[in-house]
Design brief:
- Helix content is 26%, strand content 26%.
- It has 8 helices and 9 strands.
- The protein has an 8-stranded antiparallel barrel with strand order 1-2-3-4-9-8-7-6.
- Strand 5 and strand 6 form a beta hairpin.
- It is globular and about 65 Å long.
Amino acid sequence: MALEKYRQKRNFKSTPEPAGDPDLVAKRARKARKEKGLFFCVQKHLASHLHYDLRLEHNGVLLSWAVPKGPSLDPKTKRLAMHVEDHPYEYGTFEGVIPEGYGAGIVMLWDQGTWMPQTDDVDAALARGDLKFTLDGYKLKGSWVLVRTGGRGGGGYGGKDAARSWLLIKHRDEWSGDLDIAEFAPHSVKSGGDFEDILAAETPDVWVTNRPAKTGETGAMLAGIIEKAAALKAQQGAQRRAGPGAQRRAARTKSAPPAATGAAARSPKKTTRKPRSLS
């Protein structure tokens, strides 16, 4: 079963992630044969560590690789990509909070679009450990390759002993260059916000109880995000409770509450602008 590993790792009574409908898998696989491009996405995931999940639609599911440092537009930069379990197609538009269990954290839809394999047989390319493809997303475009580094393994692609370690590499073309795309365009293509904006739409108390990282750089990052999200949520609540007249009166007094700082004070900046040629 295509999604067996995915389901084994999750308790769907406590996670908002989709379980994956077998009928939808088959239906999506049939529909994809008639379309010019297959769906792809990159989800920015702050869990036990910050990473980016590259997902490519194939046979009704999403082939998935976890890329710790995120995609690079520089052909000289080879990014580690760990092959993980296939995900349901409907997972591709997921953005929100996984409250507990496997992968607990905040998920942002960082990029999405269509992809096309540069081969007639994707399964054979995966078995060889050399998948060339093109992306047409908001942030990622042009020609790429995924290359397995750990050998074929005893079972080949999808087998019990299949190697998980791959490299994600950008080919040199009009969309390649030395721009750090993760830093240049850090926000969601779905909501336009950052992690704190996603978290502010949920319940921070629940998130604090189930935070996946408590120490180190990731823990500090998460603590800052929780603080900003709580401030943003409090600010939004205060604005709803205070009518327009109360807000104007508060602005005229010295006792008016200080403006929020940092990400909580910024309007979410959309980053769906397509980068210019970087070659």
